[in-house]
Amino acid sequence: MTVQILVVNPNTTASMTETIAAAARGVAGAWTEIIAVTSSTGPASIEGYYDEALAVPGLLMEIAAGERRGVQAAVIACFDDTGLDAARAMAAIPVIGICEAALSMASFIAQRFTVVTTTERSRVPVEGLVQRYGMTGRARVRAADIPVLALEDPASGAIGKLRDEIARAVEEDRAEAIVLGCAGMADLAHQLQADFGLPVIDGVGAAIKQAEALIALGLSTSKRGAYASPLAKPYRGMLKSFSPGAVAAE
Questions:
Q1: Which EC number(s) does UniProt give (predicted)?
Q2: What is the pLDDT of residues 121-137, one digit of tens each?
Q3: What is the topology classification, in CATH, of domain 3-98+205-249?
C-alpha cells in the first residue's frame, strides 16, 4: 500500500524545496510517495528567531492542507524545527522535525557528534534544541558562517566553508559523526561522508525514515496533555483564520 509523506519547506524559496524533495525521494521506500511543498507565506530563508516566528503560519497552512488531502505524516524541513510543537497540536498525523530526527539518528551510531549549521544566529537556537532533545553531553553545535541562500550559489564559497568547519569538528571536537544543520545541505551528505570517512547525517532523510516507521507501526502524536488539540476560541485580526478548527476546515 502506498503511503504519502508531506515534506514542507517552511521558507518561501522553491529551489530549496527541490533540493529537499530530491533528498527525501532518495531515501524513501518504494511504497512511499513524497509530496514536497513550499510555504506561500513567510521569509525566503529562516535564520534566527524572527524569521522562525513569521514562518509558522504558512507552515501550519501547508500541513493542514496536506492532512485534508490524506497524507499519513508530515516532515518540517527546517533545522530549527520551526513550528513543530504547534503543528503536532494541530494535526492528527505524525509530524517530524528534521533536527530531532537527525539528532536521534546520530545517537544510534556515535557517542560524540557535531552539528554544523549555517550562521551564528542559527547556532544558538539549534543549541537550545540539542538541550531540549537530551543531547547536550554528546553533541556540539558549530556555525560555518554561511547564509542559507548562499548554499544555492556555487560561486559563494559556502561549500568550502562547510567543509572547513567539518574538518575542524573532526579535529577539535573529536566528532565521530557530523549532522548537517540545514535542510539546504541535504544534497551534500553522501559526498561529505565519502570525503571525511565518517557518518554524515542529513535531517531530511532521517525524518523520512522515521515518518515511515511511525506509519508502519500505526503510531501518531498523543492527544493527551501537551499536544492535545487547541481549545476553541476566537482569533482576531490577521490571524482570524487560525482559530482552532478554522485552519483544518479551509
A1: 5.1.99.5
A2: 999 999 999 999 999 99
A3: Rossmann fold (3.40.50)
